[in-house]
Design brief:
407 residues, 14 helices, Aspartate Aminotransferase, domain 2, three-stranded antiparallel β-sheet, Aspartate Aminotransferase, domain 1, binds pyridoxal-5'-phosphate
Length: 407
């Protein structure tokens, strides 16, 4: 008799838990719930201002109106309501200068996690190799494996501010390489790849005739005047890039589960068929809220100002801790700390959990290069004073651990 596991597709058979292991595995399991119920704080979920209410008024009104006028109980269009796709197209144009057709180049997805899988699905065949910058979002590695591909890690380094090395790419490209996956800005490092670096990368992609999946979930808040360039706008890239975005991170609307993909007509035709088949239609109530968010020009600039200040405060509090190294966050709501000198990712994350009563992420799920790092979601809590109280507890714990280690 075979076991039920034996019946499983080999790509799934050895999966365990969620994306995260050990301490951070808890964030999908019951021990997390226990930790939170016992008063522990959560700075491990990339969820802006969590756990505080932070819905913009325009979004709240549109959401309530959807209930009041009754459309809440009905389907939207399978590829997403036209009005939402139009608002997305306008947003993309404002952000990138790219003029896209809301009826041919955009599909709405339930968040960008599913969007990432959909973006890869039409391309990856058994044994295809996919170049993934390391560290980066854990789904990048897992999605490729689930589709039968082979993730190939391309290391990026603290001392080079995690920019992409073409030498490292050239060393690993083979006739089986099909795709590059870029998380831009990056999660967990927060790095925004610079224009010169992206020009080199996209030349490499065109020369080797590869496909690019670009995850721009964190594109909406970039700090210190750094320029954001969307790779699909660079020469030769529109025809080979699938760009995946979300309202979760920039608008702080993770609970709405609205993301979108934009790409050329040829790829989109396939995605229209594939996503509709799996997702049905995006949530109606969330669609109303998302349209209001995209049409309210005041939300993003006010959040950027607030978050940039928060990131500076975090950096100033953490930068002189013995045994800890970090760059100032360049985007979004995260911070990435090099804690090699204090111990392993697991040891330090557990120490913070025990002594500061705060859950942060181990670096290891973000790739081989993640060992010796921790990720902290620095932009949790709406009020800066509430965040600072937690920063101080983390700082005290790291200083105490440093003392134990002889710093
Ligand atoms: C880099 C990156 N991409 C995509 C996602 C998925 O977010 P959502 O499905 O809420 O759009 C996340 C969530 O943490 C992320 O960090």
């Amino acid at each position: 008799m075979t076991t039920i596991k034996d019946k499983m597709n080999h790509k799934f058979r050895n999966l365990e838990g969620g994306l995260f292991l050990d301490v951070s595995k808890a964030d999908v399991g019951s021990s997390t719930e226990e930790f939170f119920l016992a008063g522990g704080d959560n700075m491990a979920w990339a969820d802006m201002f969590y756990p505080d209410p932070s819905i913009p008024l325009s979004v709240k009104k549109a959401t309530l109106a959807c209930v009041e006028e009754g459309s809440v109980s009905h389907y939207t269009l399978p590829i997403g309501l036209g009005k939402l796709r139009e608002a997305v197209a306008k947003h993309v144009e404002k952000k990138t200068g790219l003029s896209i057709d809301p009826n041919r180049n955009v599909v709405i997805t339930p968040g960008s996690d599913s969007g990432l899988l959909f973006a890869m699905m039409p391309f990856i065949e058994e044994g295809d190799e996919v170049l993934i910058f390391d560290p980066s979002y854990p789904s990048n590695f897992l999605n490729v494996q689930l589709l039968g591909g082979i993730p190939v890690s391309i290391p990026t380094r603290f001392d080079e501010n995690y920019q992409i090395s073409i030498e490292e790419l050239e060393k690993r490209v083979t006739p089986k390489t099909k795709m590059v996956v870029l998380t831009h800005p990056n999660n967990p490092t927060t790095v925004v790849y610079r224009k010169e670096n992206l020009i080199q990368l996209t030349k490499f992609i065109v020369e080797h005739d590869l496909v690019l999946v670009c995850d721009q979930a964190f594109e909406d808040h970039i700090y210190d005047g750094i320029e954001f360039v969307a790779p699909c706008t660079l020469p030769g890239m529109w025809e080979r890039t699938v760009t995946v975005c979300s309202l979760s991170k920039g608008y702080g609307l993770s609970g709405y589960r609205i993301g979108y993909i934009y790409t050329n007509d040829v790829i989109m035709d396939v995605l229209y068929a594939a996503t509709v088949n799996v997702c049905g239609a995006p949530s109606t109530i969330s669609t109303y809220g998302a349209i209001a968010a995209l049409e309210d020009a005041s939300i993003l600039p006010s959040y950027t100002t607030k978050l940039e200040k928060r990131q500076h405060t975090f950096y100033e509090m953490m930068k002189d801790i013995p045994g800890v190294k970090l760059h100032k966050s360049e985007s979004g709501i995260l911070a990435w700390l090099d804690i090699h000198a204090l111990g392993s990712s697991q040891e330090v994350a557990q120490y913070i959990m025990k002594h500061a009563n705060i859950m942060v992420n181990e670096g290891t799920p973000y790739g081989k290069e993640g060992e010796g790092y921790i990720r902290i979601v620095s932009c949790t809590f709406y009020e800066e004073k509430d965040a600072i109280l937690r920063y101080q507890r983390i700082k005290d714990a790291l200083i105490a651990l440093g003392k134990e280690k002889g710093f």
